[in-house]
């Protein structure tokens, strides 16, 4: 099952809105075939594995309950039965209402032995975005911070390239590739003129590039504007975004998504829900400080990836996270440490929401 879960993770960032599933077929203690969900979400992991071998009498280890509905492909539960699989071991039940236990039931009705819940926690970590989209109507959010030792992301003048070294930046590109979308705020888009695409890893796909900008006051000559036709750009904006700005960005190939507002900015939950409604399951937020603070205040950050560099800027620098409005330490957002390791000359930490 651990192999199946690891295989499924290969599809992260490439299969949305489908889950990233892995499947391993075993008979007499020997692995017959392996499969994982292919880019675009099809073929499914089970179909990929079954196409590689004669599976009669085999056990299938699948990281998520096999589907039980007819979509663009036949149900995987039926395919396993037709192939002569005698035992199916799964990690998770699929919460999709079209499945939701029906895949397991269909297998049992056909005489297949079914074992559920094996390596459940490990599978949940991989499927967190898919599960959140179905159960809470929003994607999984990873917030990345590249900070000096004193928690700053830029000097007082706005200089931020580069706080961390090339090894850390390479990992950031890998993290982009494993998410469906990369999200930044309008301030970061104006100040840094980011491209947000994955580079130098040889990947064939690009994440959706999302900018949250209430009034769409973004530079017309930015990298995002120049490449909107080459890799997807989605813009989250408010009802008061000028019509001309909307028309200009649509003309460049960007997708515009109107969101509800709260105070002076966009409602962070409504913004994430609008992304989930369009199929996104995993969003990688790269700042800036105001957007990071808004997500943290709303309790919408599921994972923190923090790169700490051996530099000090001082109080005159720009903080990595904007004001959270806290008056008591007990109200501070709390995360559990999962990983710490050196990356070049920097330190990488991964924190998860409890």
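Sequence proposed for the structure above (354 residues):
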């Amino acid at each position: 099952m651990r192999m199946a879960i690891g295989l499924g993770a290969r599809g992260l960032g490439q299969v949305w809105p489908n889950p990233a599933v892995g499947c391993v077929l075993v008979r007499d203690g020997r692995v017959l075939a392996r499969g994982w969900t292919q880019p675009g979400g099809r073929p499914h992991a089970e179909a990929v594995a079954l196409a590689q071998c004669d599976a009669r009498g085999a056990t299938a280890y699948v990281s998520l309950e096999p589907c039980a509905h007819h979509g663009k492909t036949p149900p995987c539960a039926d395919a396993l039965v037709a192939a002569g699989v005698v035992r199916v071991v799964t990690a998770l039940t699929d919460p999709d209402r079209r499945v939701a236990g029906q895949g397991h039931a269909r297998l049992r009705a056909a005489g297949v032995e079914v074992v559920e819940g094996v390596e459940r926690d490990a599978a949940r970590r991989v499927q967190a975005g898919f599960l959140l989209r179905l159960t809470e109507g929003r994607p999984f959010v990873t917030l990345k911070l590249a900070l000096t030792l004193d928690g700053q992301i830029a000097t007082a003048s706005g200089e931020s390239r580069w706080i961390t070294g090339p090894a850390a930046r390479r990992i950031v590109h890998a993290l982009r590739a494993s998410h469906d979308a990369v999200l930044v705020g309008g301030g970061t888009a104006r100040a840094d003129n980011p491209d947000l695409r994955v580079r130098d890893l040889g990947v064939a796909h690009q994440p959706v590039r999302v900018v949250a900008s209430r009034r769409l006051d973004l530079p017309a000559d930015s990298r995002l504007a120049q490449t909107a036709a080459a890799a997807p750009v989605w813009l989250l904006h408010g009802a008061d975004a000028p019509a001309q700005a909307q028309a200009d960005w649509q003309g460049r190939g960007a997708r515009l998504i109107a969101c509800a507002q709260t105070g002076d900015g966009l409602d962070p939950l409504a913004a994430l829900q609008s992304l989930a409604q369009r199929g996104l399951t995993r969003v990688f937020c790269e700042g800036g400080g105001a957007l990071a603070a808004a997500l943290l205040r709303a309790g919408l950050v599921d994972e923190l990836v923090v790169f700490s560099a051996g530099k000090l800027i001082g109080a005159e620098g720009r903080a990595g996270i904007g004001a959270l409005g806290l008056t008591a330490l007990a109200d501070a957002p709390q995360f559990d440490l999962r990983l710490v390791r050196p990356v070049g000359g920097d330190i990488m930490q991964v924190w998860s929401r409890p």
